[in-house]
Automatic annotation (TrEMBL):
The keyword Oxidoreductase belongs to this UniProt entry's keyword annotation: no
Location(s), subcellular: Cell membrane
Topology in membrane: Multi-pass membrane protein
Record's protein name: Cytochrome ubiquinol oxidase subunit I
Upper classification of the organism: Bacteria, Bacillati, Actinomycetota, Actinomycetes, Streptosporangiales
Family: Belongs to the cytochrome ubiquinol oxidase subunit 1 family.
Signal sequence region: none
InterPro entries the UniProt entry points to: Cyt-d_ubiquinol_oxidase_su_1
Length: 454
C-alpha cells in the first residue's frame, strides 16, 4: 500500500524517520561488516605471504588493504550520519533514555578512533616498517573493528531487553549504564551480528574472484582470492546457525510476540508447528509448509511444548507479521544455502584436496556474496520490525519516540541522493584502483615489487 506523501511529511509522523533510519542503517551496515571482517583476512594473507614467501598472498593483502582504506573512509561518513539521526529523528528516545544507552556509544567512539589511527599507520607503514612491526600494527584494527560492532549492537540489544534504570512518574531516578549495556539480549545479538559480518565479508570477497574465474582467470592469485575468504566464511556459517538457534530461543523466552510473527503463528498451542513460507492474513498463515511440532521442538526441546501465539497479544501491540515472517524465512533459507555451499567445498577438499571444478560451484560462490548481504539485512528487519510497535520493548513506543517537529520527511529524499552519490563514488574509486594497477595474468615476484611501489 502506498503511503501518502502528506503522511510522510506530517509533523510527528513515524513513517519518514523509520524510512530514513532504516535506509541509512541498511546501507551503512554493509560497510560495517566489511570493516569487521576484512582486517583479519588481510592480516592472514600478509602473515602467510611472509611465512611462505609466495607472491600471490602479498599481492592480495596489498590490494585488499587499499580497498579497506576506501571503505573505511566511506563508512565513517555513513556512520556519522547515523549518529546525527539518533538525536535528530528520535528525540523522544534520546531525551528519556540517552543517559541509559550513552555508554556503549561513547566506548564505541574510542574503538573507532583506535581503528582509524592504526589503519593510518598500517597503510602508510607498508614499505616503511619492518614486516613484523607492520603486521602487529594491523592487530589493533582487527580488535577495534570487532569491538566497535559489539558496543553499537549492545545499544540495540538494550532496546530489545531494557534494563539498568528505574523510572518513576515518567522520569529516570536511577541509571545503571553497565547493567543496561550487558543485558539479556547482549550476548546472543552481538555474537550473531559479528559472525554475520564475517560471513558477509568472506562470501562477498570470494564472489568477486568467482566472477573473475568464470571469465577465465584461473591463476594462483585468483584461486587464493576465492579460497581464503570462502573457506573462512564457510567455517563461520555452521557456528552462525548454532548462534541463530540460541538467539531464537532468547526471543521465544523474552519476546513471544516477535517469535509468533516470525513463524506466522496466531493461535497459542501445544505442539506448535514450524512454518516455512506462506502469507499471513485473516489471522492465519496460508500456503506454508508446516512441520508438526517443529517450533515447539526448536524453542523448548519438546514437540509438545506450549508456544504463545498472536492471539494473546493486543491488536495494537502486534508487529506486521508478513514482513517479519518473510524476512526471517529469507535469512534462514539463505543461511542453509550457504551451509550447503560450505559442505560442497569441504567434500571436494576431503576427496581431492582441491575445490570443486564445476562451473556451477563458481556460479554459486558468485551469488553467495549478494545472498549473504540479503540474509544479513533480512535478519535486521526481523529484529527491528519484529519489535514493533516498540522502540524500547515494552517501555516506549515508536510513535512516542519520534521527533514531533515538522519537515523531518524532507530529509529522506536528501539522504537517498547523498547515498546514491556515495555509492557511485565508492564504486568508481574501487574500479579506478583496479584499472590503474591491473593484476598480471601470471604474477611473478618482480611484478609484485613493481606493483607495490607504484
Amino acid at each position: 500500500m502506498m503511503v501518502p506523501h502528506s503522511a510522510v511529511l506530517a509533523a510527528g509522523s513515524a513513517v519518514a524517520p523509520r524510512s530514513q533510519m532504516g535506509f541509512s542503517l541498511g546501507w551503512h551496515i554493509i560497510l560495517a561488516c566489511l570493516g569487521v571482517g576484512l582486517p583479519g583476512l588481510i592480516l592472514f594473507l600478509e602473515w602467510r605471504g611472509h611465512r611462505t614467501g609466495e607472491t600471490a598472498y602479498r599481492l592480495l593483502a596489498r590490494r585488499w588493504a587499499r580497498a579497506m582504506g576506501v571503505l573505511f573512509a566511506v563508512g565513517a561518513v555513513s556512520g556519522t550520519i547515523l549518529s546525527f539521526e539518533m538525536g535528530l529523528l528520535w528525540s523522544g528516545l534520546m531525551e528519556h533514555y540517552g543517559s541509559v544507552i550513552g555508554l556503549p556509544f561513547a566506548i564505541e567512539g574510542f574503538a573507532f578512533f583506535i581503528e582509524a589511527i592504526f589503519l593510518g599507520i598500517y597503510l602508510y607503514g607498508w614499505d616503511r616498517l619492518s614486516p613484523r612491526a607492520h603486521l602487529m600494527a594491523g592487530v589493533p584494527i582487527v580488535m577495534a573493528g570487532a569491538l566497535s560492532a559489539f558496543f553499537v549492537v549492545c545499544a540495540n540489544a538494550w532496546m530489545n531487553s531494557p534494563q539498568g534504570f528505574t523510572e518513576r512518574h515518567g522520569r529516570l531516578v536511577s541509571v545503571r549504564p553497565w547493567s543496561a549495556m550487558f543485558n539479556a539480549a547482549t550476548w546472543p545479538e552481538t555474537t550473531h551480528m559479528i559472525l554475520a559480518a564475517f560471513m558477509v565479508t568472506g562470501f562477498t570477497v570470494a564472489s568477486v574472484y568467482a566472477v573473475a574465474m568464470l571469465r577465465g582467470r584461473r591463476d594462483r592469485y585468483h584461486r587464493l582470492g576465492l579460497l581464503v575468504p570462502l573457506t573462512f566464511a564457510c567455517c563461520v556459517t555452521p557456528l552462525q546457525i548454532v548462534v541463530g538457534d540460541w538467539a531464537a530461543r532468547y526471543v521465544a523466552a523474552e519476546q513471544p510476540a516477535k517469535l509468533a510473527a516470525m513463524e506466522g503463528l496466531y493461535r497459542s498451542e501445544h505442539g506448535a508447528p514450524e512454518s516455512i513460507g506462506g502469507l499471513y492474513h485473516h489471522d492465519a498463515l496460508h500456503g506454508a509448509i508446516h512441520v508438526p511440532g517443529g517450533l515447539s521442538l526448536l524453542t523448548h526441546g519438546n514437540t509438545h511444548a506450549y508456544v504463545a501465539g498472536l492471539d494473546g497479544v493486543p491488536a495494537d501491540q502486534r508487529p506486521p507479521v508478513n514482513i517479519v515472517h518473510l524476512s526471517f524465512d529469507t535469512m534462514v533459507g539463505i543461511g542453509f544455502f550457504l551451509l550447503a555451499l560450505g559442505a560442497w567445498l569441504a567434500w571436494s577438499w576431503w576427496r581431492r584436496r582441491e575445490p570443486p571444478g564445476s562451473p556451477w560451484f563458481l556460479r554459486a560462490v558468485a551469488v553467495s556474496g549478494v545472498a549473504a548481504v540479503i540474509a544479513m539485512e533480512a535478519g535486521w528487519v526481523t529484529t527491528e520490525v519484529g519489535r514493533q510497535p516498540w522502540i524500547v520493548y515494552g517501555v516506549l513506543r515508536v510513535k512516542d519516540a519520534v521527533n514531533p517537529a515538522g519537515g523531518i520527511g524532507w530529509g529522506f529524499p536528501v539522504l537517498v541522493a547523498v547515498y546514491v552519490a556515495l555509492t557511485v563514488a565508492t564504486v568508481y574509486v574501487l574500479r579506478y584502483m583496479v584499472r590503474r594497477r591491473p593484476v598480471p595474468a601470471a604474477p611473478q615476484e618482480h611484478d609484485v615489487t613493481e606493483y607495490e611501489v607504484s
